[in-house]
Structure formats: C-alpha cells, structure tokens
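Exercise 7b. Backbone tokens:
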C-alpha cells in the first residue's frame, strides 16, 4: 500500500486520487482531535475525583458529587456516578 507523506499539503501532483488524499487528511484530523478529547477526558476525571474527594460538592448543599454533576453539568445520574468511579480508579492505577 502506498502512503502519503506526513505533510499532505505538499502534494501537488495528480498522481494521488482526490478521495485518497481527503481520506488521509480527514483521518489525520480525526486522530488528532481524538487525542485532544482523550486528554481532556482524563483531566475532567481527575478534576471530578479531586472535587469529590474534597467534598466540594457539599458547599452547594447537594447530597453527592453525582447529584452535583447532574445539576451543574447536565450529566445523567448513572454517567455521573460512573465518572466518579472512573476518576478514582484511574488515579489508583496511576498511583501504583
């Protein structure tokens, strides 16, 4: 299989099928965006873990961190509880 060079903007010949060039360019954008989303998700989970472990959700008189996430962020209750659990588990995994 022939691959394009990393910088597809340098391609000016008609040797490459336009759909192939578009596929590579869009594919690169998608994978780059996925990297940003993964990094942002990791940071969000870390922040939720900190927020929960410090009990900061109690300041608003809310019953749990999951309820706070539901109220302030519009996250469904099941997803909010899962984000809390995932944040704790990822912290444990990274802490060794």
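Sequence design result:
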């Amino acid at each position: 299989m022939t691959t394009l060079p990393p910088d597809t903007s340098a391609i000016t010949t008609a040797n490459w099928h336009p759909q192939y060039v578009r596929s590579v360019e869009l594919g690169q954008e998608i994978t780059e965006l996925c990297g940003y989303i993964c990094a942002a998700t990791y940071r969000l989970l870390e922040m939720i873990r900190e927020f929960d472990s410090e009990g900061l959700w109690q300041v608003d008189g809310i019953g749990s961190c999951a309820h706070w996430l539901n109220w302030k962020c519009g996250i469904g209750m099941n997803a909010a509880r899962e984000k809390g659990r995932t944040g704790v588990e990822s912290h444990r995994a990274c802490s060794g």
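Instructor comment: Residues 17-95 form one domain. The helical segments are 18-53, 65-73, 77-95.
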